[in-house]
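Case study: ATPase.
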Amino acid sequence: MTSDCYYLGVDGGGTKCRARLRAPDGTLLGEGLGGPANIRLGLDRAWASIMEAIQAALAQAGLDAAAYPRLHVGLGLAGIVTAADGVRTRAAAPRFASVAAETDAHAACLGAFSGRDGAILIAGTGSAGYALINGQGHAVGGWGFEVSDEGSGASIGREAIRVALRAHDSLAPETGLTRQIRQRLGGSPAAIVAWVNDAGPADYGRLAPDVLAHAAKGDVVACTIIAKAAKELETYIRHLHALGAPHLCLMGGLSAPLTPWLSPWARSLLAAPEGDALEGALLMARLNIPSPIAKSALP
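Here is what the predicted structure looks like once written out:
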């Protein structure tokens, strides 16, 4: 297929990246998959993964590198935090017709509301919020498991371990959850401490389904942990709404199980996403007007 131009969106994270190619009339021409594309892994590595996905999408459409000069690209990538990150990322690109680069959260928010004002709140292994108001992006939270990520799977797992150890010391109630957590991690406090020495956010996050399962059965400790996580997410929701987002999309692996635990006022602000991050990246490619990210704690 030959066209004067093509639009391509890329959604890149720390595990993989995806690419989607559309014709000017919106017809889907191809999709591709590549490796990790978080720019914190290094621009060379990120661009190698991005090009892997782009080339796969082009191949599905019967195209090759000859189409690059007609390709308008929108990149939504993990690791882009400042305007300088976007400039560095675009500078490393091949000679495409145009390149727009923003954080993956920006692309996800654009896709969720088709470019209109709105906000997203990611509740997965980690947590982070992002609002798009009058073309301006506002990132909230997402500073990492060590100091942030409230309401996330990792924080739920960490709290479950903390309470399981307190129950062992008779400082908290002993329940089915506290016994299961200790058994899963080796049984004794010494084994748990040894596990913690090498554990990362994903390891803690894998305990969240146990907490949710026990909460569904009325386990008092599990219910307390999940209720606390929901309240932490509500703090984000309240702030994102106050920034001017009329509605919010709750995303990530914990979005569905935690939604029933939210207060009615918070649930009333939730909306189903209209499109995914790839559609947001495609919108960036069409507009090619990257919006700066506002994060007050950054220089």
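For the exam, be able to explain this: The chain has twelve helices and ten strands.
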